[in-house]
Design a protein that fits this description.
By secondary structure, the protein is of the alpha+beta class. It folds into two domains: 26 residues, no CATH class; 245 residues, no CATH class. It is built from twelve helices and eight strands.
Length: 308
């Protein structure tokens, strides 16, 4: 402090500021924090998982039914039914709406595009479904909306996260697991991925292949997205669904390309693909999506809600 006397009294001046050296590490920390904050704003799932990693979790998540995170369990002491229920509980905790187990030997060669040797080792397919937002789908008229496009992307991220969590839990038990991306094409011309998620889901008893060429679940209709985890963990395989669309033809009249026919096997894949490409170009979407027939196929859950 400078307390020297002056004509008007005593002069009081603040102390000189502390010298702060801005180092390279400080710059790295600043920009890393900025990137992390931007991720929170852009992607709510990133924020959700970040908070989940630093905040105390409910006892139901800290201690799942089979205590995968805290107890070394030997599979020899567990039944297939226990393994199956443990995986079901884990998927539910991470947001899965549907769960089933398929015997991969039931799939045809044109429904799975992985080396045969891999399927001989990983002979079960865990199918997980996520129920899409009904209110977002209801906003679709004759073409996909920007909100549905974003919802579609975020749902795929969530399903891929569930796949990683389940695969990690299985590996911790000493078994092999391979999560298959929810939406990754390996053949753009035929619009095919590593395997057909919908046919795995059908074999797992989650629904049937409808006239719209999508999986139709009895409760949610086609308002779902799917992911698959291949594994050799001993599980109880579920029986394939034998149901079908029956007299329901709602999707036929709604299809903007006319690709949907009376018989599911007559579905016009080329017309559907061309319409998806048109939407992607005109709406500037990075994915080939539509959502019109997804909206139309509501399942029994919607009928029950409206009849109550």
């Amino acid at each position: 402090m400078d307390d020297r006397p002056t004509k008007g009294g005593t002069r009081t001046t603040p102390p000189p500021p502390l010298a702060v050296a801005w180092t390279k590490d400080d710059s790295l920390f600043f920009f890393s924090s900025l990137v992390l904050f931007s991720s929170f704003v852009y992607d709510p799932f990133v924020l959700r998982f970040f908070l989940a990693s630093i905040l105390p979790r409910p006892s139901s998540i800290v201690n799942p039914p089979l205590h995968y995170d805290h107890v070394k369990v030997t599979i020899s002491s567990m039944s297939r039914a226990q393994n199956t229920e443990g995986m079901r509980a884990l998927c539910r905790q991470w947001g899965g709406s549907l769960f089933g187990v398929a015997d991969l030997q039931l799939l045809r060669n044109d429904q799975i595009f992985l080396p045969p040797s891999l399927i001989h080792r990983l002979f079960f397919g865990i199918s997980v479904g996520f129920h899409l937002s009904d209110i977002i789908l209801e906003e679709i008229e004759n073409q996909p909306t920007p909100l549905y496009f974003h919802h579609y992307q975020r749902t795929n991220i969530l399903l891929d996260t569930i796949g990683l969590v389940v695969a990690s839990a299985i590996q911790d038990l000493g078994y092999q697991a391979m999560p298959i991306p929810a939406s990754q094409l390996v053949d753009w011309k035929t619009q095919k991925g590593h395997l057909s998620h919908k046919h795995v889901a059908r074999a797992a008893g989650l629904g049937w292949i409808g006239r719209n060429n999508l999986l139709v679940n009895k409760e949610f209709g086609s308002r779902i997205r799917l992911v698959t985890i291949l594994t050799d963990l001993p599980l109880e395989a579920h029986s394939p669904s034998k149901e079908e669309c029956g007299a329901c033809h709602v999707c036929l009249a709604t299809c903007p390309s006319g690709a949907i026919k009376e018989k599911p096997e007559d579905f016009d894949h080329l017309r559907c693909y061309e319409q998806l490409r048109t939407f992607a170009k005109t709406l500037h979407f990075s994915h080939n999506i539509c959502g019109v027939c997804v909206k139309a196929c509501k399942g029994n859950r919607d009928r029950i809600a409206h009849s109550a």
